[in-house]
Amino acid sequence: MNKTSLIATLLLSLAVVILYVLHFTGRSCEKPSSSRDQTANEQRELIIAYVKADSVILNYDLAQNLHDEFTKKQEAFTSEFGAKRNAFEKEAAEYQQKLQRGGFLTEQRAMQERDRLVNKEQEISRLDQELSSKLSELQQFNNQQLIDSLINYLKVHNINKKYDYILNASNVLVGPEAYNITSEVLQKMNSRYKATQPAK
After folding, report:
1. Are residues 57 and 122 in the same domain?
2. pLDDT of 126 strictly over 60
3. Is 37 inside any structural domain?
C-alpha cells in the first residue's frame, strides 16, 4: 500500500511539472481552431455613447413648459380646494356657535344641519382625492411624454451616428466625456421643439 501511494504521488508530481513547463513556455497541447480565429476577426469594436437623461429632462424646453402648465393647474386646484375648505370651516364654526347658543328651534333642525355639514365635509374630501388623483395622472403623463420625446429623438439621432448602444449616464459610473452626447442631444431637442412652437 505504501508503494502504490509513493507511485501515485510521483505520477502526480510529474504531471504537475509537465503542466507547469507547458504553461510557462507558451506551448499548448491544443491547437487553435480556425473557427475561433474567424470569430475574432469578425468581431468589431462596440460604439457606445451615453446621455445624462436627468440633465436633458431638466433643461429641455418642453419639460419647462410642462412644469409651468402643471404648476398653474396645481395652483388652481389648490385654490379651488382651499376656497371650499374655508367655506366649510366657516359654516362648521357658525353651526357650533349656534348650537351652543341654542339657536336652533328644534333638535331635529340641529341634526339636519349637522348631517348637511357632514355630507359637505365628505364632498370636500372626495374633491381633495379627485384633485390629487388628477394632478398625479397629469404628472405621470408629463413624465411619460418627456421620456418618449427623449427616446424618439435618440432613435432619430442614432440613424446617422450609428451607435450600438446609447446608455443613460445614471447607470454609467465611469466613462470618458468624449462619449457623453448630452449637450448635443439637448441642444438639438430644444431646437426641434422650438421649431414646432408658434412664433411669439
Report:
1. yes
2. yes
3. no
CA atoms within a 13 Å half-sphere pointing along the CA-CB vector of 192: 14
Q: Are residues 9 and 67 in the same domain?
A: no
Dihedral sign of CA atoms 120, 124, 126, 127 in order = positive
66 and 94, same structural domain? yes
Residues 6 or more apart whose CB falls under 8 angstroms from that of 148 comprise none
**Which letter, b or e, does each residue of 132-169 get, where b requires 16 or more Cβ atoms within 10 Å of its Cβ?**
eeeeeebeeebeeebeebbeebbeebbeeeebeebeeb
Residue-range definition of the domain harbouring residue 15: 1-29
8 Å CB contact between 146 and 60: yes
- Determine the pLDDT at residue 27: 45
| Residue 20 shares a structural domain with residue 56 | no
Digit-coded pLDDT (tens) for 12-40: 555 555 655 555 554 444 444 555 555 55
Residue 161: predicted pLDDT = 87
**Could you give the number of structural domains in the chain?**
2
**For residue range 137-181, what is the model confidence (pLDDT) as tens digits?**
999 999 999 999 999 999 999 998 888 988 888 777 777 888 889
H-helix or E-strand containing 165? strand 165-168
10 within some domain: yes
105 and 132 in a single domain? The answer is yes
Query: pLDDT confidence of 120, banded at 50, 70, 90?
Result: very high
C-alpha to C-alpha distance for 63 and 197, rounded to whole angstroms: 14
Residue linked to cell 445614471? 170
